[in-house]
Amino acid sequence: MKLYSYFRSSASYRVRIALNLKNLPYEYVPVHLVREGGEQLKPAYRQVNPEAIVPSFVDDEHHTIHQSLAIIEYLEETQPEPPLLPKSALDRAYVRSLALQIACEIHPVNNLRVLKYLKHTVGVDDATKDAWYRHWIESGFETLEQRLAQDPRTGKLSFGDTPTVADLCLVPQVYNANRFKIDTTRYPTIQRINDYALTLDAFARAEPGVQPDSE
Amino acid sequence: MKLYSYFRSSASYRVRIALNLKNLPYEYVPVHLVREGGEQLKPAYRQVNPEAIVPSFVDDEHHTIHQSLAIIEYLEETQPEPPLLPKSALDRAYVRSLALQIACEIHPVNNLRVLKYLKHTVGVDDATKDAWYRHWIESGFETLEQRLAQDPRTGKLSFGDTPTVADLCLVPQVYNANRFKIDTTRYPTIQRINDYALTLDAFARAEPGVQPDSE
C-alpha cells in the first residue's frame, strides 16, 4: 500500500490514522503542497491524481483511489478490523454525518487553493484571509460542539470510547484550529475528544510533526 | 420517511433522486433558504438540525440524519435495492470518490452561506462573486471531465449504465452550472451523463422545477 501525503494536509492525516488503527503498513510518498508552487500541480503528480490534491492511495496498482473518505470506506470494506463505523445503520449514519460535517462544511472552504484564490484573485489582505479561516472553523465547531455535547452516544471519543471515522476527521481539524491559534476551550467536548484521541498510538503516529516530510 | 428540503438545494436534490430510485415514498417538508433571511436559521429548524442546513432526513423519529451523503449511505444499507454503489470494493471507492469530488471540492465552496460571507463580510461585488462561483465549478468540472472521459468504467452514466451515487451528485451540480450559465459543452462527458440521467423518471421527478416549493 502506498499513500501520497503531505504532513500538514488534514485529508492525508485522516487516512494515516485509519491505516495506523488497522495496523496496515504503507509506503509514505511525500507531495509538497507549497514548494515551487506545489508539487501536486506538476504533471508527474497529475498522472497519479488529476484532481491535483492529496491524499491518493494505492492498493491495487491499476486503481489509485482519490478522496480521503472514499479511501477510508475502502479500508473499512477490505480490512474490517478494527471497525471505524458502528454496527447499526442509524449509528453509522450519525458517525458519517459528523465526519461529513467536517469534510464538507468546514474543511473545503479553508482548503489551500481556496485561500490562494481569495488572496491572489479576489485580492484580500492577510487579515481578511485569516478572519475567513477562523470564521469557518469557529462556526463549524460551534454546531459540532452542540451536537457532540448533546448526543448520548458521545463517549471518550465522538461515538463511544473507540475510534470512528468521526474522530479521524475531528483530530486533523483541531490541528488546523490550533495552527491558527483558535481558542478551542470554547468547544470543550471537541477539545476533550481530541486530547484523548492523541493519547492513542495510532493517532499520535499520524500527527504531522512526526511524518517523514515534516518541517 | 420525511425529507426537509429546498427545491434548489443540490444536497437535497441528491437525496430526492436516491429516494425516487429506491421507490421510497416520503413526506416533503419545505425549508425556504432565502425568505426572511432563511428559515433554516430559525430556532424551529435548528431544533431539527443544529447545522442549519438542508437536507435533514427522518426515518426513525428519534434520530434525524444530517448530510446528504450520510443519508444516501443509510438508504443504501437499509433499502439496498436497487443498489447505488457497485459491488467490488475498488469500484465502490471509485464511485464514492467521484461523488466526494463534487460534494467536497466543488459544492461547499459555492454554498449559499459562503457566498453570503463573501458578499457581506469580505465585501466583494457581484461580478467577483459570480466569477468565484464559476471558477470552482469550471476548475472542478475540468478534472471531473478528465476522469470520466478516461475511465473505461464510464458508460451512459458515471459508472456503467445504471445510476450510482456519483450521478446523484453530478446532476444537481450541472443544474447549478446551468443556472449560472456556465458553458457545459466544454465538458462533453459530464453533459452527456447529465442529459441521459434526466431522461430517467427518478431523476426527472427530483428536479427542482417540479418540487412542491418550486418558484
Report on this model:
- Two copies of one chain form a homodimer.
- With 215 residues, chain A is an alpha+beta fold.
- The first copy, chain A, folds into two domains: 2-82, Glutaredoxin (3-Layer(aba) Sandwich), CATH 3.40.30; 89-203, Up-down Bundle (Glutathione S-transferase Yfyf (Class Pi), Chain A, domain 2), CATH 1.20.1050.10.
- Helix content of chain A is 52%, strand content 7%.
- Chain A contains nine helices and four strands.
- In chain A, strands 2-1-3-4 form a four-stranded mixed β-sheet, covered by helices on one side.
- In chain A, β1, α1 (10-21) and β2 (27-30) form a beta-alpha-beta unit.
- In chain A, α7 crosses α8 (188-197).
- At the A-B interface, α3, α4, α5 and α6 of A face α3, α4, α5 and α6 of B.
Topology:
Two copies of one chain form a homodimer.
Chain A: E1 2-5, H1 10-21, E2 27-30, H2 43-48, E3 56-58, E4 64-66, H3 68-78, H4 89-106, H5 112-122, H6 126-150, H7 165-179, H8 188-197, H9 201-204
Outline of this structure?
The structure is a homodimer of 215-residue chains. The first copy, chain A, has 215 residues and is of the alpha+beta class. Helix content of chain A is 52%, strand content 7%.
The level 1 CATH classification of the largest domain in chain A is Mainly Alpha
Radius of gyration of chain A: 17 Å
Structural class of chain A: alpha+beta
The termini of chain A sit apart by 24 Å
Which series of helices and strands of chain A comes N to C? EHEHEEHHHHHHH
Chain-averaged pLDDT of chain A: 96
How would you sum up the major sheet of chain A?
4 strands, mixed
Strand content of chain A: 5-15%
Low-confidence spans of chain A: none
Strand order of the largest sheet of chain A: 2-1-3-4
Q: Which oligomeric form is depicted?
A: homodimer
Kindly report the CATH topology of the largest domain in chain A.
Glutathione S-transferase Yfyf (Class Pi), Chain A, domain 2
Contiguous helical run count of chain A: 9
